[in-house]
């Protein structure tokens, strides 16, 4: 997929749920699965599948990165502490969660502006349509595939295997 000029996945940064800034340079050379998440969504049980992917493939390099978002049906109303507690208590999430962000519209996080530009959805639409949209990034920082919210994490195992 074509990249905007002078931009790569490694030029972005975000803050973790605890407020720690993280440069995506940290993930250079590692495949990434980037997902916008929500705690009160019909797709919320996908946290379990994302955690399973993390447990199964982290040692081989995969990084699962979750970005809570409250833009779809206000399904992520909590603050950082509430989000972290919910994910830990209900799904044992140990992959990296970032602070709540916008993934569409004028206030969208720059990472999501980039992801939607290089990997548009159905019919070429760049916007995120709902929670649990997933982006798979290869070891070189290229976005190789975008998955709809209905795509369960276990359904992308073969694609992940090809990147490891």
From TrEMBL:
Residues 3-164 form the Thioredoxin domain. The active site is at residue 41. SUPFAM superfamilies: Thioredoxin-like. The keyword DNA repair does not apply. InterPro entries: Glutathione_peroxidase, GPX_AS, GPX_CS, Thioredoxin-like_sf, Thioredoxin_domain. Belongs to the glutathione peroxidase family. This is Glutathione peroxidase. The gene is gpx1.
